[in-house]
């Protein structure tokens, strides 16, 4: 998402236009008074409060590692320290005074005035690292624009006018690396539906630019080398994006985007033969035609499969909770209208889903109220709020009922970390199941009540000392023993959102292990994985970790969210286990992620068989006629843009790549190297109006004029000073303002004084003057 004067993370970074203004009109309130402290690292001041100290120390180490990566790839060093402000939860983050962070989809932001990075913990260290990397790219961009002087460069920023796909796409590419399955989903869908954006559509933001921008920069990095990205940024600051690409790559932006569109289509369209749309194996349930709106996410079926709850904008401006007929898709009613109810300030619709009680009468959801999230139980039959359980945590997501309807399990957020918790349906018996740094998400209670399935990053790939994080896997929490069992065959890809089969003998889940998010089934008897769908775009919610599945136990019906034609729709399939075939085997030839693979095969003259065998294996080629030539900044000389950049460390032309830097994980600093300080208010400028002064004589002798204005604040935005003055002739007629604003507590207040000269227009009049024999006044009798 984007905010004026700042840039936000891809995460959060999402497709549906209504998300931008989901809570337009609601007021930001400071419910909590955070006792901020500072961790000083070599390049950053990390602001945190005691509840998040553990996570803040790890975030500080991640920041220094990202600086080591990005400074190499962009060939740029910070000249001053950069601030990073951390919040323990989304609810805390929405109380920040630095800017407006009340939008549901804002996962992080970097503002220009002081180069402040602000972000909340989300319970997943892998996502935290991604957001820190994404936002730090913006800090580098701002540092280049301001030439290392925080607060400077506003005119340069305005003059360069870099488009959103440029700045956000670069941040996503440098923090994620080559095209990932989620970006590929967007590219496949746009290729199939004919929606690949043109340069004009990208420039004027007629499309959501994050993922397309990611793919464009990935194409640039693959074709010209990642070392070109820093050069393009430096040149674009001076000459604009068009001039930056022309100067660095010798190609116009229009030609670049045209080549990129061709590369995307030749990469993804051939995959059509091996995949299909969801409607081939499932029935459309919630679509724009049936239910209105283009956003239908987080489906939750009633146990009998007759009704479905979901989040949607329903062709309106806001995302709310709806109930629809699960056969026709006809909307029955709106369950929660968050925009008019202060008890539902946020429905957590991006990262959370609700669930029905076993009898289908009650529906449990997470909803923000004041400074934290509540567990809200709605009575569907009476269309009212039955109970609101105040959870002593800063956030919660995805509640799931026990089969007897007496308890709920959910993911709770405490100090920025996520764990599993249980509470009785009447609000008593709150207790914690897990207590560690691992991400424990999307719990689902088994039909026999003995086990809870959930998604987690536990596994050999996760090491909190080295801050490396493995893929998301499925695990079981055995309530009788209090032990965790990791399921087998989860070593590859994202594996999330487990939902139980009615008989409890298998789990359906979402995985992108073959490059596309599809439905899979884990069989407890055979310990095998089965692929249930092979769709073209993807089974997915808004983000890669968004919940997308629901299984109605009485009806044996599975509903899933599906991305198609730029929309999120819901499909349903009865008896989903009938889709089970042979146990899953990884494809012999993985899906091609390289946008240059087809071009290089064509240049090399490969036969189809050779091309198939060489999928994903770039080959050196000769320059094409008219192709651009690139000069490496590392002294490697000239090469054709169609020749892949060398990556071998022993090569004379060795260059650094984004992927190698992310994979190699530069050394982390030790926390003993950090300095800890209390936070003190210190005012620094936010904005200074360009001072003016002049002298001009007129008939009244008032010759001096001029003025300026300055706004100062502390780093947290709690205290603000405003001063302005302007004179046009005499000091007695000067305009002067001085004000102080305090936003530290819930009650905000301000004090100030001003002098405001009043000017008014006196029209010119003509009056007749009479000295003798004057006529009497109008309206009086004549003597």
Which terms would index this structure?
six-stranded antiparallel β-sheet, globular, Glutaredoxin, Neuraminidase, 783 residues, alpha+beta, single chain, 14 helices, eight-stranded mixed β-sheet
Q: Report the total helices.
A: 14
In CATH, what is the class of the largest domain? Answer: Mainly Beta
Which blocks of ≥5 consecutive residues have pLDDT under 50?
A: 1-26, 607-627, 634-638, 647-653
For the largest beta-sheet, the strand count, sense and barrel status come to: 8 strands, mixed
**Overall mean pLDDT:** 87
Strand content: 25-35%
Shape, please? globular
Number of domains: 3
Main sheet strand line-up: 1-2-6-7-5-4-3-35
Please name the CATH topology of the largest domain. Neuraminidase
- Oligomer state equals single chain
Query: What is the H level of CATH, i.e. the homologous superfamily of the largest domain?
Result: TolB, C-terminal domain
Q: How many angstroms separate the termini?
A: 84 Å
CATH-level-2 architecture of the largest domain: 6 Propeller
Helix content: 10-25%
* Gyration radius from CA atoms, angstroms: 30 Å
Describe the structure.
It is a single chain. The protein is an alpha+beta fold and 783 residues long. The chain is 21% helix and 29% strand. It has three domains: 1-160 and 665-679, 3-Layer(aba) Sandwich (Glutaredoxin); 278-579, Neuraminidase (6 Propeller); 682-755, no CATH class. The chain contains 14 helices and 41 strands. Helix 8 packs across helix 9 (227-249). It starts with a strand and ends in a 28-residue tail after the last strand.
